[in-house]
Design goal:
The protein has about 150 residues and is α+β, with helices and mostly antiparallel strands. It is about 20% helix and about 40% strand. It folds into 2 domains: about 1-30; about 35-130, Sandwich (Immunoglobulin-like).
Length: about 150
């Protein structure tokens, strides 16, 4: 009896999921058009010195007819920091998302930043580049300066 109840329950669940994916006319439901457009979703910093943070700005546009609110903007790791306005983006308006990278670790990097909006929609931004070891001092030592220091 328990097995029959489980089978009926699973069958009902499958039918319920199928019914949600199809509208009354029998065709698949299409999602609403995407209203968030990112003008450029990737940025390559090129070569940046270690320990010198780098920042870029991504421009986004609300192509919808109602204000759009970004629910969250989150980076794939702690070395990347997104900054954005919590205010709604008016219809047809543009906004900016600044993305900073701390450049602590040497080597190539590729980091993702996910924009979450309209409760369950997402867009992904990508930053990349290469961090090189910066020189220990700002300029090479000058032996003439050391000689002058000894004389004085």
């Amino acid at each position: 009896m328990k097995k029959l109840a489980i089978v009926i329950s699973l069958f009902t669940t499958v039918l319920g999921v199928r019914a949600q994916a199809v509208n009354n006319g029998g065709t698949a439901v299409t999602p609403p058009p995407d209203v968030l457009v990112v003008k450029q979703n990737t940025f390559d910093f090129g070569k940046i010195p270690q320990g010198r943070p780098a920042v870029t700005t991504f421009e986004i546009v609300n192509t919808g007819s109602t204000p759009l609110k970004l629910d969250n903007v989150q980076a794939s790791c702690g070395c990347t920091t997104p900054i954005w306005s919590r205010d709604p983006i008016e219809a047809g308006a543009t906004a900016e998302i600044k993305v900073g990278y701390n450049a602590y670790a040497k080597g190539r990097f590729t980091k993702m930043v996910t924009i979450i909006y309209n409760t369950n929609r997402t867009k992904t931004l990508t930053i990349s580049g290469e961090v090189y070891a910066a020189p220990a001092s700002s300029a090479p030592e000058n032996s003439s300066v050391e000689l002058l220091k000894q004389i004085n």
